[in-house]
Amino acid sequence: MATRPQDTATLAAPTGDVVDLGGPGRADPAVLGGKAARLADMIAAGLPVPPAFCLTTALFTRYLADTGLAGKIEGTEGGTVRELILATRIPAPIADEVLAAYEKLGRPRVAVRSSALKEDSAARSFAGQHDTVLDVAGDAALLDAVRQCWASLWSARATAYRDGATAGAMAVVVQEMIHCDVSGVLFTVDPVSARPHRVVVEACQGLGEGLVSGRVSSDLFVVDDGSLEVVEERVRYKVAKWAPLAPGKIGMTKVDAADRNVPCLDHAQLAELARLGLRVREHYGSEQDVEWGLRDGVFHLFQTRPITTRPAPGDAASRAGTLSPYVTEQPEAVQRGTLWSRMDIGEIFVGLMTPLGLSFARYYQKNVHLDCAAALGVRDTGEADLHMGYYQGHVYLNISYSAYLLGQALPTRNQRHFTKRFVGEEVEGGALADYENPFGTFPGGTEGLRSTAHWLRFTAAEAVRMKSRSGEMVASRLYEFDRARRLDLSRMSRRELHAELTRDLGYFHDMHIGYMPYYINAFGFYGILTELCRMWLGEEGENLQNRIKTDMSSLRTVESAKEIWAVAQAAKDRPRVLRIINEQPLGSVEETLRADDEGAVFWERHMEPFLRANGTRGHQEMEITHPRWIDDPSYIFQMIRRYASDGFSADDILRRSSGYRDGSREILKKLSLPQRKVIETVISLYALCSELRETTRMSMITSIWLVRNVVYEVGRRLVDKGVLHSLDEVAHLDFEDVRAYLAGEAGEPEAFSRERIDEARRVHEYRKRLPEPPLTFIGEHDITQAVRPAPDGARLSGLGASPGRVVGRARIVEDLAWQADEFEAGEILVTRYTDASWTPLFAIAGGVVTDVGSMLSHSSIVSREFHVPSVVNTKYATQRINTGDMVMVDGDTGTVEVVEG
Fold first, then answer.
1. Which of 159, 522, 595, 698 lies at 20 to 30 Å from 539 by C-alpha?
2. Percentage of the chain exceeding pLDDT 70
3. Which residues form a coiled coil (predicted)?
């Protein structure tokens, strides 16, 4: 509750219980708390720390005594103590002392930070356990912020972190607020890889809270601690930042376009910052983790703490540097001879995955993948550990082992028919021509006959049932979606939640098995079509398989773009509804619509049906940390804004996504009638399997969403109990720990130890620094030896994935939800990779360019459906191209060129 405004003219002078930091005398942590004592040391040492004062632990003790709380809190639960403090006014004598110090500071806007006794100690950092209140101004607001920091000593997360230890006392730092242009952290030694003589700097636009929470992109720099030269630099495209939105309100906002693709710091600034970090290290005599900010070209240091976790031989950080994706030890010939690929593996394992995502992929590997292989008619499905592997946070398919097992099926008896579909340019040519599978070939003889007979029976049965089975999967998806919307997971007991997860994992199992034949059959008919075009049409048939396609506008992925357009037109017909969508912040559009009479009708008639059909889509679908459209419809509102303002029509989308083109019919007429009939049959089979694949895909990704719902309900409970700092930390859990916890096999401390969570976060941050590993490689790969700078010049080569040539302005897109409204019709979409959630942008793009991709990746397939020229697997496009560059995209030759910067 607010306190009375104070008359500053009658304030008492500060006593010894409120002290200026950096003044004479020893900075005693028992008086100032860990954080304030460190700041006082730094100020006294002449380091550039913003001026601050500290409300000592003695003042806190006086507050408890004077209010009578001291006798009430003993034996009282932490949450109750916290509420008592928040509800109890600070007595006038104590308030006067605090406000006198605030007056002496000059009454600026301030950051009010906790400084508990054990905070920032060498043993435990307590980072993030207690509250910080930013951008505070005015007497009443300052006193409220002080009580909030005091009360946070009994927050659920701080109580859980202490693990039974007494609360102790709390000091509070009041420090001048610096609205930083750039912020970040500096480690005086690499905290993950343990490389000596390396200062690691992470920098983001705006305030450092965005970086600490993991919600914004950051640049990474490594500086030699002797020469102060920058020895490593990774500049990311930065879309959002944490910054003041209004006086006293800090939140996410967009980074100015001119600052998105440039380094946060130049080399001179990095040398200056590293020099400051080394001064801090020298002063304390130990490696330090320093928070810093830059405002108007001047560096400020906000806090420092010892680096409490360092890599040790054999820990997870060391294992993160392994050279092989295998999860179990293998014979040397297998270890060094296996072909690994992450091309075209269902478009759900795309990109770097979080620890939770990786552990969920491992669950899939152990419990689902073998049955998926069986669903293809494979009699002997082999060993689960050999099917998939993991390298630097990415999921790989073991192509060698898969090819060996698929030798049981007639179409892939010759392993090269399967292998070459998963090989990228990294191992093309001679390496593949001379390649020998370390697993050999599947046995022939009686064993081969049994496997062939099994495959024939299974395939015949699948051909009969494929359409009806697809209908069953669609019906089940809608049933499960509606059921999930009715459930209130928050009211379930842990046992009930365990039963729900078990049920959802069963559905997850069945839908992945049901989807796999459609995916592989479409994949196989595409390969047959490619071979026939090459064999019968020679040079004229080059890339022809990407042009001689029938009307694919019925694909579920393409259909979603049309349905968003329809929702946009419905909003456009209702000016009040469109005004809400255009003018409200994205996070409050849904709530505002539902609270408005006309908006509620629009939501029920148009948004609900759309979300029922498409709502479980999301970015990187097997990565269950990413919200789906039904969880966060911000991206949909962005696309409604774009489609409504552009006046783009459904006819435009339909026209772009259908029909033969580029003279393909004329080329086919050169074939003999039997050959033409064969190709047309293959085309129709490919079209059918593609349609069924996309239809059943929605069932598959809905099953992932169901699992995600339960995991995040567990996450919310862990946040309430203080085990997790925030829901963002769900990303650093292990899926098997979640299952064990719900099954009653372990309590919160055992299942979710802070040490394991911090370790998982540390390794994930390390992997985020690394370059993108190759799509394919043989044996082992040392990513630290494979780092190459982007090539000079403004011309890039990749794979021509969708034919055609176009010139247009480039638009780098890193974050769909934040940037969809910026994308203009006809622009060239440039990004790292795409998945199904990006499809609505393809409907208005002039061309598509990606760093990663293959001929059957999402960006390639959907570009072809929309007749958009596309080049994928350029590796460096997002580094070499800037938003606004005039770019030529040639989807026939696979080249991208900046023709005007």
1. 522
2. 85
3. none
CB 581 within 8 A of CB 640: yes
- Separation between Cα atoms, residue 478 and residue 466, nearest integer Å: 19
Residues 6+ apart with CB under 8 A from 291: 183, 184, 185, 208, 301, 302, 303, 304
Q: Could you tell me where the DSSP H helices lie in 246-379?
A: 267-284, 316-319, 332-337, 355-367, 369-374
pLDDT tens-digit readout, 514-570: 999 988 888 778 777 877 887 887 776 666 666 554 444 445 667 788 889 899 999
Q: Which helix (H) or strand (E) holds 20?
A: strand 18-20
DSSP letter string, 805-855:
EEEEEEEE-S-HHHHGGGPPTTPEEEES---GGGHHHHTT-SEEEESS--T
Cβ count near 419 (within 10 Å) = 21
Tokens of 614: 């498409």
Q: In the beta sheet, which residues pair with residue 558?
A: none
Instruction: State how far Cα 658 lies from the chain centre.
Output: 33
Residues with Cβ within 8 Å of residue 168, at least 6 apart in sequence:
116, 117, 118, 153
- The token pair at 650 is 């459904």
Phi-psi group of 126: left, alpha or beta (phi > 0 → left; psi -120 to 50 → alpha; rest → beta): left
Q: End-to-end distance of the chain based on CA atoms, in angstroms?
A: 56
In three-state secondary structure terms, 756 is helix
Calpha distance 270→234 (Å, rounded): 13
Reported pTM: 0.78
Long-range CB contact pairs, 214-221, < 8 A, 24+: 214/728, 214/731, 215/240, 215/242, 215/252, 215/728, 216/240, 216/241, 216/242, 216/252, 217/814, 218/184, 218/264, 219/263, 219/264, 219/265, 220/769, 221/263, 221/265, 221/270
